[in-house]
Amino acid sequence: MKQLGTRPLSIRVTDPFWTKYFQVVKDVMLPFQWDILHDRASITIESEREDVNIPTEKSHVIENFKIAAGQKDGNHYGWLFQDSDLYKWIEAAANSYHLKPDGRLLLMMDQCVDLIEAAQDEDGYLSTFYQIEAPELKFRRLFQSHELYCAGHLIEAAVAYAKATGSHRLLDVAERFVTCIESSFGPEEGKINGADGHQEIELALVHWYEYTGDERYLSLSHYFLQIRGQDPDFYEKQWKENQARGLETGPAPIINLVYHQAHKPVYEQTEAQGHAVRLVYMAQAMAGTARHVGDEKLLAAAEALWHNIVEKRMYVTGGIGSTVRGEAFTFDYDLPTDLMYCETCAAIGLLNFTHELQQNENKVAYAEVMERILYNSMISGMSLDGKHFFYVNPLEVDPEASQKNPDKSHVKATRPSWFGCACCPPNLARTIPALHRYLYQENEEQNILYINQWVDSNYSSKEMKMTQKHDWNAQVSTFIIHNSKRRIFLRIPYWLEDVVVKVNGQEIEREITEGYLELNAVSAEVVIECSYQIPILKWQAHPNVKSSYGKVAFQRGPFIYTAEEADNGKDLHLFRVTGEAQVEPLTDPAFGTVTSLVVPAEKRRKTQIALYQLHQAPAFEPATLRLIPYYCWANREPGEMRVWLEDCEG
Ligand code: FUB
Ligand code: ZN
């Protein structure tokens, strides 16, 4: 492989809100997760939902690799995709290292690479479960095997590691695995003509192509997307073939094709159905592959999926997945707030899918959805100490119901340290230090730089340099642009009002077109200063959203707000909002100082004793509700939480 080397970052995030998270990832999450992967952390691993089959005894990830490498004896432990926890950890470490090189991190990553190299089979195959437990079933149980899912995470880790360190060692491992995959999959006689039950390799191949320019990876991604759902019987046929060969396959599986998005060709999938993470990973790959190969039909299908999600199936927090059954989408406007799934990985998947579409065509709607996820459904997935995580991100919690109603066993009131299925924590660790990806969008053909997110950062390219800095208390933002050869489109967030823009001290009056202000910044240094108000916004849901209709959800800046028992006492369902909210700083050891909202409300008196009584007019007492940013919830003592509040105007 030709040496491509490191990729210096052209964007540096300096924002205090986010740099605090980068620090937590580097100083806390990476070492903490490292210890867990090595089974030396004293933590309790929890089931993500009530299910005795979830492996919660240990992680065993490193052990699995050691056993596969022949360095130890033993059995595989954990999910079929346990390997992906290590790949995601490496990607997280590489992304962190890219922000700031660190000798210790490099050593830890290199140690992982040594182990992965050692575990790889001669022919390039790599999946510790199958290597240890069932070599005869390699690539023969694709509906559930996750072999290509893990290959995808290996590729993503390898690309991140190469970009950050310049070393191609892990890419070489990935290359050997992909060569093995290419020789096993394809339309040719004797090969497997189908795709993995969990999409991931497709999007990773797109990243690999973008790093190397090698079209082989793009073709393979295109192939896996094109073959998906072409033969709905593919997985069943594989199983029957195994049986015919006398292979130990276990009882006949029930294969839900919709869950795997394998019920019809991806070109025809315009509604988000099935497992949410799988869907968004697939859609991300569709958008990326389509862009590079010029497959317009594929792009149109990806766009249709995106519209269906954000217009009919996304929570106000940016979360997706309405049911625990199959961790899946359900139907339009079905957005229950207390039973939902809203997996952290699904939020990250939608972020990346949206970002992929943004690279096809910059649109303000994409920037807004990415922002909604980043500040809400994504970071709510972790506690501020970096050692506790949510898999499921609810919009309404009653801890007693979570404990005693088995249908709500997935809706946790506190963040566990780790899960039997640990997909989410390392997903957060790899995404947070990659924040810079989502801030700007270049359009070379039209010579435009879009400033999509208002995040303190420095941007530099051969066409220009710029710095953006925000003082949210003073309500002033400054963008300093040097020597721009680009046209600049500055997104004016919908959550600002009375925006006054000055260019080099001169107020300008220009129309905001489709969410952006076009700026002329050709001279040596242009200083753009924006002053504004940050109003408190209220959201209402479409009348078809039965769970939230008639209620109100608050937002200020990019943050959705929520009420917690810690500030308001119990029975949040008995409050109703009566007036306009005010901002008030709130300091708590759990989250430092944040802007809280104080909302005039009234609380229904609980005078009724009988379970049912003939209707009487309710009595209310005056009250106030204090709301905190949603991402801060569950950092204090466990209690009720509620995003959508009863509204007396509802
Ligand atoms: O199957 C691998 C990962 O585990 C999925 O992406 C998550 O939803 C979790 O089920
Ligand atoms: Zn997850």
Regarding quaternary structure, what we see is: single chain
Total beta strand runs: 23
Helix fraction? Answer: 25-40%
Major pleated sheet = 7 strands, antiparallel
Major sheet: order of its strands? 1-7-8-9-14-11-12
- Assign an overall shape: globular
Give the DSSP E fraction (strand runs of 2 or more residues). Answer: 15-25%
N-C termini distance:
62 Å
Summarize the structure.
The protein is α+β, with helices and mostly antiparallel strands.
Structural features, described:
It is a single chain. With 650 residues, the protein is an alpha+beta fold. Among the domains are: 256-437, no CATH class; 440-534, Immunoglobulin-like (Sandwich), CATH 2.60.40; 537-647, no CATH class. The protein is built from 18 helices and 23 strands. The strands form four sheets. It has a seven-stranded antiparallel β-sheet with strand order 1-7-8-9-14-11-12, with no helix packed on it. A six-stranded mixed beta barrel has the order 16-17-21-20-18-23. Strands 5-6-10-13 form a four-stranded mixed β-sheet, with no helix packed on it. α7 runs antiparallel to α8 (169-184) and α9 runs antiparallel to α10. It is globular. The model has no long low-confidence stretch (mean pLDDT 96). Residues 343-345, 391, 423-424, 427 line the site of zinc ion.
Question: Main attributes?
Answer:
single chain; 650 residues; alpha+beta; Immunoglobulin-like; six-stranded mixed barrel; 18 helices; 18% strand; globular; binds beta-L-arabinofuranose; binds zinc ion
Reconstruct the topology from this structure.
Elements: E1 11-13, H1 16-37, E2 45-46, H2 61-68, H3 83-99, H4 103-119, H5 128-133, H6 142-145, H7 147-165, H8 169-184, H9 201-212, H10 215-227, H11 234-244, H12 276-293, H13 296-313, H14 344-360, H15 364-378, E3 396-397, H16 399-404, E4 418-419, H17 424-431, E5 440-443, E6 448-451, E7 457-460, E8 465-471, E9 476-482, E10 487-491, E11 497-503, E12 506-508, E13 516-519, E14 525-533, E15 536-539, E16 551-556, E17 559-564, H18 565-568, E18 575-577, E19 582-588, E20 592-604, E21 620-629, E22 641-642, E23 645-647
Parallel strand pairs: 2-4, 6-10, 18-23
Antiparallel strand pairs: 1-7, 3-22, 5-6, 7-8, 8-9, 9-14, 10-13, 11-12, 11-14, 15-16, 16-17, 16-23, 17-21, 17-22, 18-20, 19-20, 20-21
Bound molecules: beta-L-arabinofuranose and zinc ion.
